[in-house]
Amino acid sequence: MNPISNIWNHPRTSAAGLLIAIVTVASVLSQQGITLGAAGSGTVISLVSAMATALLGLLARDPANSANNANSAGSTAKLGVWALIALLLPAPFLGGCSGTAVARDIVNWTPTLESAVATVDSTAALLAPADAPVFAAATAGFDAASKLLVNQAKAYLANPTAGVLAELQSQVAAFQQQVNAALLSAAKIANPASQQHVLSAINSVGAVVTAMLALVTSISSKAAVAQMAFHSTIKLATVRPWLDEDKAAVMVAGHYGEPVEQARIQVASLELGAARAGF
Questions:
Q1: Helix or strand or coil: residue 89?
Q2: 3-state secondary structure of 161
Q3: Per-residue pLDDT tens digits for 61-89
Q4: Taking every pair of C-alpha atoms in the chain, what is the biggest distance, in angstroms?
Q5: CB-based burial, 74-95: b 16+ in 10 Å, e otherwise
Q6: pTM
Q7: Which residues lie closer than 8 Å to 173 by C-beta, 6 or more apart?
Q8: Can you tell me the distance from the alpha carbon of 96 to that of 135, in angstroms, rounded to the nearest whole number?
Q9: Separation CA 215–CA 145 (nearest Å)
Q10: Tens digits of per-residue pLDDT, 194-218?
Q11: Full DSSP string of 110-152
Q12: pLDDT value for 262
């Protein structure tokens, strides 16, 4: 088949293929630490990847030029599949990371985690009197858990051994369970205003912990991840109705200096990966 005529006869399909290739190459370059320079608060690579992904999504939703053309309908369906493939591409900041790089990244999340936990501590004052004790009980262990997690990440950064990694794995999985349990407790709060404050505060902590969990599992063996998931009794699917993906995307984008649209893709990919791993 003549490739030139194929491109001419199937422009939307060819455009989708090109955009998929751009997202894939950008992901690989990001994994290798290649940025091609800065673009605003992010990098050229992250900007190109986000633009290609957004264009692919628009192309997938674009109505066929002829509503009566069966081939157009099939093409649109294929574009939807390709958009899903792009969505499931691995998050660039997880690929090819060493244990030391992961530990450093976890430590770099420290200010955000501390700020989120501080917000939790101050949220009780915003709640209805009957709801404050419920919230305080649900989040009572956040301060200690966050300090322990950060200290263990620093310990692994200084001494990246299997024993220290095992402690880090245990703590991040335990903290994730605390967050999930807190979300379930928040769901029982009947006062709409109180529940909104509670869910916002818990999701801020949860976004950081989920990112840390993904970072730790990226350098863990399959057996270790399975063990972590086995002890995670409150599964992601159980708390999904109370997760705030938009908040998580904004926090991830701010941390890595990338467009929010790209961060949304990464958050969705991380959640899917965690669910597949059994969390």
A1: coil
A2: coil
A3: 455 444 444 444 454 444 444 444 444 44
A4: 73
A5: ebbeebeebbeebbebbbbbbe
A6: 0.68
A7: 213, 228, 229, 231, 232, 279
A8: 39
A9: 17
A10: 999 999 999 999 999 999 999 999 8
A11: HHHHHHHHHHHHHHGGGS-TTTHHHHHHHTTTHHHHHHHHHHH
A12: 84
